[in-house]
Amino acid sequence: MLNEPSGPTEPNELTELTEPTELNAPGAGLTALPAPAGDPASLRRVDLAWNELTELPPWVGRLPRLEHLQLDGNRLRDLPDLRGLTALRDLHLDGNALTRLPESVPELTGLRTLFLYGNAIGELPEAIGRLRNLRHLAVGGNGLTSVPAALWRLTGLRSLNLAENSITEVPEAIGGLTELRMLDLGHNALTRVPEAIGDLHGLTDYLYLSDNRFTTVPASLGRLTRLTYLNLTDNRLTVLPAALGGLTALRELRLYGNRLRELPETIGRLRELRELHLMNNALTGLPASIGDLSRLRQLDLRNNAITSLPGSLAGLRSLTHLDLRNNRLRELPDGLADLPALEKLDLRWNKLDGDPEVLHRLSGRGCAVLR
User: Fold this and answer.
1) Whole-number Å distance between alpha carbons of 322 and 368
2) Residue 251 CB contacts under 8 Å (≥ 6 apart), including other chains
3) Is 106 among the domain residues?
């Protein structure tokens, strides 16, 4: 860490290192990086994030003990030769202006984390496959249209972020990344989900597949029995496979912005589900099994074409928010009044017949009813 200055400090001035293992100057307004007053050779951590750096001096690439280098949010277009960073484990370069992966980076074979999100890298080299110890890779928000075959051989990856590119295809080789816990393929130009997605048995945290061009998803998706969050929003899905019911650990399912006309009956098997988001589809009804989701807290059905609700909704004993705006409802099941946790029911832009008693019962016990 740097000494506290006794008075105003020039943006490019680094005071003497008091802890020779760390150099921390995030958000310090630096436009250039002079050598610190102390000996940098013992540095283990350097944090220069959120400055205005456009280049780094060569000495940064010659720190033999450095383990963590954080350079997010600068204006770097290139890097010096980093092959001297033989102890480096974490390299953070999000939000810079890099147009290619510097040649020395694949030589850093001890890297466990490589973050390159939000640069302008149009292509990754096959040499990225040398990073066999990599656990976390983020190359989203670049200009990628494809990724090299070598990437799919990084079988130790725990998280992979390829979002916000223009990738058109993901090969079946993705199935070899069985250690993945998080995978983000959202906001690309994919037209199919590979069957091998079902081989990613380690997926526990998140699977983002939003904003692509999928019309279907494979039944193999249902083999991801440990997955807790699935996002398939803003695609072109018209149906879901019955195998979706195999996602028995799922807690949040986001399906809004598709063309779904119905839900599979097997959705009732998702007993751990807390949130179900289905707005902006073409649903005309719900399966009776929806009432088996006893832990569901939020159910969003805005902007569909639902004409009636199943009486089984009374089984949603944990439901706190039910959004039914802009559907085609004329009446409501009496069981809605018996939902003990319901705090808000939104029925705006429906045309209910008369003045249903169920709404008076709900509002009478403190539920906010909007109609």
Assistant:
1) 11
2) 228, 229, 272, 273, 274, 275
3) no
Q: Is residue 316 part of a domain?
A: yes
- Rounded to 5°, angle at Cα 69 from 65 and 72: 175
Does the residue 294 lie in any domain? Answer: yes
The secondary structure of residue 167, as a DSSP letter, is -
Does pLDDT of 15 surpass 60?
A: no
What does the pLDDT read at residue 248? 98
pTM recorded for the entire structure: 0.94
Task: Specify whether the CB–CB gap between 171 and 148 falls below 8 A.
Answer: no
Write out pLDDT tens, residues 54-105: 999 999 999 999 999 999 999 999 999 999 999 999 999 999 999 999 999 9
Residues 179 and 155: beta-carbon distance below 8 Å: yes
User: What is the domain count for the chain?
Assistant: 1
42 token code pair: 């013992």
- In angstroms, the CA 143 to CA 120 distance is 6
Buried b / exposed e over 203-241, threshold 16 CB at 10 Å, is bbebbbbbbbebeebbebbbbbebbbbbbbbbbebeebb
Instruction: Give every CB contact of residue 193 below 8 A, 6+ residues apart in sequence.
Output: 170, 209, 214, 217, 218, 221
The residue segments making up the domain with residue 310 are: 283-371
Are 8 and 28 in contact, with CB atoms under 8 Å apart?
A: no
Burial zone of 126 (CB within 10 Å; 0-12 exposed, 13-18 middle, 19+ buried): exposed
Residue 370 β-bridge partners: 346
Question: How confident is the model over 251-303, as pLDDT tens digits?
Answer: 999 999 999 999 999 999 999 999 999 999 999 999 999 999 999 999 999 99
Distance CA 28, CA 331 (A): 61
Domain CATH for 350: 3.80.10.10
pLDDT in tens, 32-57: 998 777 789 999 999 999 999 999 99
Task: With respect to residue 313, please indicate whether it lies within any of the assigned structural domains.
Answer: yes
pLDDT digits (tens, 9 = 90+) for 351-369: 999 999 999 999 999 999 9
* Residue 364 vs residues 314, 318, 331, 350: alpha-carbon distances, Å: 18, 19, 19, 21
